[in-house]
Amino acid sequence: MADNPRIEELRRRVQQDPASIAFAQLAEEYRRGGSYEEAIAVCRAGLAIHAGYLSARVTLGRALLEVNDLEAAYAELDYVLKSAPENLAAIRGVAEIHHRRGQLTEALVFYRAALALAKHDPDLEQTVDEISRVLTPTVDDGLSFEQASAEFLAALEGLPGGLDAALAPEVAPNAPNAPDTTEDPAALPQ
Predict the structure, then answer these.
(1) Structure-derived torsion over alpha carbons of residues 98, 46, 27, 37, reported in degrees to the nearest 10
(2) Mean per-residue pLDDT of the chain
């Protein structure tokens, strides 16, 4: 990281003028380079002077997210969203925090908000699709008509009398045209 001339130049500027807003650029360069602790330290020092500098808060929140300090990251990114509700980096950061916490419904809300701002972002589209599939229970469409018919006919075959008995019209006793089921008293054993 010390070999990066951009970082060296920004570091000199901040050392010469501790009130310079160049701290935000320096912190972002550290963050992009994977030096998250340095990014956090530079942001915190600069924000002590420039508390309302939102891009520095986004950088701080993203660096905190990288070191898995989700509470502090959320505080920074939420602060940004209260002042700049369409800040894409802050929205994505809050979405990721919810995602890491397993709060998929909340994560999906923020990922969709980010996707509305960054239309056709393939990473966001994929993440929204994946979370949506997890949250939406799969619906069993059931049996096809052919499958249902086959199962129904097989069940009827298993009935006493088989399919013919099951399909024969049922006639109520003592109804007109009903076979006489009363016994002939003369036929009874005496």
Answers:
(1) -70
(2) 86
